[in-house]
Amino acid sequence: MVAQKSVRADGARSLAKYLVEEIESGRLPAGHKLPAERELSESFQASRGSVRRVLSNLKEMGLITQVVGSGTFVSEDVERLIPQIEAVHPSVIQTSPAELMEARLLIETQMPSLIVRYATPADFEKMDECIRRSEAATTIEEFEHWDGALHQAFAEATHNSFFLKILELTTQIREEGEWGRLKKNSLTPERRTQYEEQHRNIVSALRDRDERLGRELIEAHLLQVQRNLFGRN
Hints:
Layout: H1 10-25, H2 37-44, H3 48-60, E1 64-67, E2 71-74, H4 78-88, H5 97-107, H6 112-118, H7 121-136, H8 140-158, H9 161-174, H10 177-186, H11 189-207, H12 211-230
Antiparallel strand pairs: 1-2
Helix pairs in contact: 1-3, 2-3, 5-9, 5-12, 6-8, 6-12, 7-8, 7-11, 8-9, 11-12
């Protein structure tokens, strides 16, 4: 509801969805101070005007309060409002992180065959932008956002609506609390560096239209993420 109300840009929709889900889950508790508009704008690649509209919508719903000179805070009354949030913003599906990774290994490894055939220069520019943003991220949450955006860009580059819908669902599940907890516990600086290198290698192979190598690199990347998340050898 928030994302659809006066919000059009992808970045603003992502911001709205992120804030509602973080408040709903309790990861942004009552009284928590939100980042400044400028920081939200940069993190989610949304205009300052779009960020203000998102915050205005949340304020109308009673989820946040704004104090001139002090900032924006999660409402002290948010616990009473959570049932109302859940009524308009239900979870789409209950899937464990382990199930998600098994499905991703089956699905995402099939995308290179379409990407090498149909991806456009604009698709690769979007992948490059996601990589730049993820490497510049200063928090795990921001890195995870752009990591997910990169895999979403892979799906978009297939120009196949089925893959796109599947990856949209994947992104929603990745934003659930259990996934975030596992990622936060497993993402060391060394592993983040490895992921960043793997991302660049995957995009390079896809840009070269090397289907076999692209598939192998995506599979190797997802297997490593799986091992790191669940401590598997």
